[in-house]
Each structure stands twice: as C-alpha cells, then as structure tokens.
Amino acid sequence: EMGDKHRKLPCMPNMPGDQQTVESTSLSPDAQGSHDGTAPPPPVSESGSRRLETIARHVDDPSLCRLAGSASAASSWGSFQRPRNRPLCGDVRAVLACGGSRERDIEDLVVLPRRHSGHSLGDHPKDPGSDRLFDPATYAATARPLLEASTLPSECYNSKLWYDRELENVFMRSWTLVGRVDELDKPGSYIAIDTDWGGPVAVSRGEDGKLVAWANVCRHRGAKVVPDGKGSATKFGFVCPYHAWTYSFDGKLTWAPGMDAARGFESGDVRLELVRFEVFHGFIFVCMSDDAAPLHESLGDIGAQLPAWFGPEGAAEGMVCVDRREFTVPCNWKFLMENTAETYHTAVVHKDSLGPMKSEPCPPHQGAWDAVLVPSARSIVPLPTDFEGTTHPLPTFTDSTAFVNVFPSLQINCTWDCMW
C-alpha cells in the first residue's frame, strides 16, 4: 500500500510518503462504488483532490467532478476548489504494486488534517515561511562539493507543501516502474498501480500479444476497472465492478449494459484512455506527462556505463521475476533513497547479511540516474547466508556489482548473477 508508504524494488518504483512499503523483487536469468450526488461530498485532501482530478479527466461523466468539492467544477475540467485541510505528508494512500492492500477509491478519499513540523517553515502558500521554503538560497549548502555539503533541511521531509511540489514537478514528469514484461505472460494479464500524482494505471497484454497501458478508470463513472496488483481479465474481458461496462484486453469498450437505446452513444467509439509507456530491458515504465522526455533519453548513457546489465547484450533483457518481498518502513520516501546511495551503514545495520562493503561513485555520466559501484569477491545478494559455501548461487555473467538509483525513486541492485 502506497502514498504514505514507500515501495523500493527493481520491479517497482519507490514512492513518496511518510510510511514506506519496501518491496524487493529478485530477478534472475531465465533459469468500488461512487457517490451519486444525492448528498454533499465529504472534504478531500489536497493530494486526494489531485488524484481525483486525474481520475476525472479519464471519465465521460462530468457529474463526477462534484466529488472534488466544487459545484462549479463540473463545467470546467480541472478547476477544483481544494480544501485547506491537508493530511500529514503523503497520507493519501495509493496501491502501487502487485499484492498491495485495498486502495481507498474515489468514494473514500477523506483524510483528517494533522499538524506537523513542516508548518513551522510555512506549509501553506500564504504563510510567511513558504517563500523561504522554496528560496534557492535556503539550500545553498546542499549544492556545495561533496566533502563540504550538508543534507536537506528537515522541512523537505515533513512539509506537505514541499511534498505537493514534489508530486507536481518531480513525479508527474518522471517515468514510473510498473513491473516486468515476463509477468504479463498471456493475453488478458495485467499489472495495475495507483499513485498520488497519476492515479490508477494498468498495463495489459492484448489479444495480439502487444502491451498497452491505460488509465484504470471506467469511462462511465470513474470506478477502477481492475483491482491494484497483478491479475487476469475474465473470458469476457475487463469488467468494471460498478456497472459491468466491459473492455477488451487492450481497453476498448465491448459491452455497456442498458446503453443500447442511448442516443448518440456508440460503444465502438469508447475506450479506456491510453497512457504513455516504454519498455527498457524488460522493465515496463509509465509516464503521466506528455511533456516528459522519452525514457531512453532520461536514462542517458546507462547502457554504456553499465553494459553487463543494460548494454546491447545486457543480461537484464532476458531475466525473469522470481520473487517478491514487501516491507513497511515508517519514513519519508527520500530517507530510503538516500540510504541506498551509500554503503556506509552496511557494516553495522547489515552486519549479518550484506556485511561491510567498499564502494566508489560511478564515473561521470549522463541521464537521470546514478550508481554506487561495489567491488567484491562474491555476488551481492540480500541474504548471502542463504547461499553459504558459494560466491554466486546462479550462473554469472559479470564479476561486478552496482547499486543503481533511477531518479526520482527507484533502485535496482545489479550484481554478478541477478538483480534485486
């Protein structure tokens, strides 16, 4: 469960929030209802309103906009009145990965406001401290050379205003990892995620064997067509659980009960809204922004710098997902990402598993990624004690290890014989 939880896995992206769910996925070589408008809708948090706005864009029924708390919003897409009550940073939850718990849908996005230390620097646009929160001078010390620099101020981890800016300017414009191609092994199989910034999205395999990504939002009343996680369509297709509108494996409407007599309605003209997606060495990414650079541009020269895994003959392409493990960590998403950027702590925190590890930074490179290179005499896997007596439990294709961070919030740990 995501949003105020955090997911870190090579097959899934890390997400922002206060309580983070960390899912580690091992890769190895090939070896729901809605309000009817009869009563005033409950207040919606700012993050919830952003998510609801995204959902509403995918729906044909403007009356759904009333859920955003603005009677005038129905006549103007996106013009929502956002309430001032806001939750603790990241408190609106979103299921983002396979096996997640039930996500709060459009009928239950209400979140009670809570105060937190982020208010001290100005957590509302009209608060005096908000100017300093986004003043570059406040962060001058973080941009100094490594041996002189300091960490981010605490407000960057607990300010709701800062978190909302991250969603808008960082996550909305980035590529989000959904899963692996090998997990969609037959027509009708899908993986569905839900994020604070992009709302519900699914990737499925069509009848023709090709992948397609679509907004997991029924074009009728905005309910989720499929639950979050991994699954397969029925023999009829993807059936919305609200009014049974049914879509083909690639998202085209095939049946709308009771709509035969509707004037001006042609089911063949309706489909679930398409979403940008790209595949990189077997990893499926989606992006909610039309303005974001293509994925291959975003990743720059990662293939040239890390050819054993991501080069033209890189091993990642032929790997399959063999295991998933999920952990909940009560922290802001940046804490985990910063933790993964160093091996300073492993001799203490992971003394009985990973153990002490020397490391060195990746040489100068291009793209929205970075890496820590970890020279070692064995494959660096999460629990080496599981494989006592061997330095590499699987056939090796390299003798190096790299902990790779794909910004903003994904880590892929690449080693001798697998990735995790």
Description:
The chain is α+β, with helices and mostly antiparallel strands and 420 residues long. The longest helix has 12 residues, at 46-57. The chain is built from 9 helices and 16 strands. A 4-stranded antiparallel sheet has the order 5-4-3-6. A hairpin with a 3-residue loop joins strand 15 (402-406) and strand 16. The radius of gyration is 22 Å and the shape is globular. The chain has helices at 46-57, 129-133, 155-158, 160-171, 295-298, 302-305, 307-310, 333-340, 346-349, and strands spanning 20-28, 176-180, 189-195, 199-205, 211-215, 229-232, 238-239, 246-247, 253-255, 276-280, 283-287, 320-329, 360-361, 369-373, 402-406, 410-414.
General form: globular
Mean pLDDT level: 77
Would you list the SSEs in sequence order as H and E?
A: EHHHHEEEEEEEEEEHHHEHHEEEE
Number of H/I helices: 9
Largest sheet: 4 strands, antiparallel
Draw up the topology in text:
Layout: E1 20-28, H1 46-57, H2 129-133, H3 155-158, H4 160-171, E2 176-180, E3 189-195, E4 199-205, E5 211-215, E6 229-232, E7 238-239, E8 246-247, E9 253-255, E10 276-280, E11 283-287, H5 295-298, H6 302-305, H7 307-310, E12 320-329, H8 333-340, H9 346-349, E13 360-361, E14 369-373, E15 402-406, E16 410-414
Antiparallel strand pairs: 1-12, 2-11, 3-4, 3-6, 4-5, 7-8, 8-9, 10-11, 13-14, 14-15, 15-16
